[in-house]
Amino acid sequence: MLLCWIQKLILWQVGYNLNIVNQREAVTVSKELTKVTIAVKEMAQDTVDDSATAFAITIVSAFYLPASFVGVCPKISVQVSASDMLR
User: Fold this and answer.
1) Which 3-state string (H, E, C) describes the chain?
2) pTM of the prediction?
3) Per-position pLDDT tens, the chain of length 87
4) CA distances from 46 to 40, 51, 54, 72 (A)
């Protein structure tokens, strides 16, 4: 009877110690996950900023680039006669 009680006490103590170790590991993992979450949030914010910059560059280029070709390319005049249009 005493041996059974001692075995139960030992098993309870081992289970209690394992529970404490598991709780400590859970806290450590939680802290690490919090750090990773913050890093992912910062990356997402940087991505949004980069997307806005790319959008602004695209809009400026859409207006500036065609106008630069018009300003640089020589004027080409094409003469089409009425007989060419009937062909």
Assistant:
1) CHHHHHHHHHHHHHHHHHHHHHHHHHHHHHHHHHHHHHHHHHHHHHHHHHHHHHHHHHHHHHHHHHHHHHHHCCCCCCCCCHHHHHC
2) 0.46
3) 666 777 776 777 777 777 787 888 889 999 999 999 999 998 888 887 788 888 888 888 888 777 666 656 556 655 666 666 565
4) 10, 9, 12, 37
- Residue 80 one-letter amino acid: V
